[in-house]
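call fold(seq) -> tokens
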Amino acid sequence: MARYQVILAYDGTEFQGFQKQADARTVQGVVEVALRKLNWQGETLLAAGRTDTGVHAAGQVIAFDLHWGHTPDELLRALNANLPADVAVRQVRLALPDFHPRYDAVSRCYRYHILCEPVRNPLMERYAWRVWPPVDFVRLDRAASSLLGSHDFSAFGNPPHPGGRTVRSVTRAEWFQEGPLLVFEIVSRAFLYHMVRRLVSFQVEIGQGRHENGALTTSLDEAPAEMVPGLAPAQGLVLKEICYPAERLVEG
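ret:
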């Protein structure tokens, strides 16, 4: 019996989120079905976090214990042979027996994609939020810089558990151009529920001139009693990467 760390990528469009549900198609559900075809005997796999309905991932991390008499690369191929087309195992590694993809993570990176066009683009809108009027990139960039450091993000999300802490430390927050898209990338050890999508929505409103340049800083410093309105659509969000200390992954 060994514990394996697996990196998953998936198109979240046709999934009702990551977490297994009795009467809905979820990422966890289809992965566990594939594992059982390989004689997995576990009750539930471990995951780094839960993505919402419609959210995508390039670097979701799961772990499970399995009797497997072959190489990790052969496990990768066996899992992919049993997974649907909108989910893929990108990497399989041996991990320490007590490795946990959620609690051992030292950082998480999310990306959000925006398309500034007045008319819908069927080839891109599955993975981006189309906004119009266009946003001012300088205003976006200035807003993102105010997110760096430790702040109370209670105006932008809920903690995983009622009464939990709402202070989070952001080590990277920036906008950049990638072809026709504007991309927001943010890194922190942990995020509040809906935090990234609310931050994106608020920044877009700043970029469109609907708020003053300092509005985001004010919302962080004053920690309003009510959450800010606005939630960017799920399809623009991608869980890009989760990082771990090297010693928590491969034995020896």
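The chain has two domains: 2-104, 107-240.
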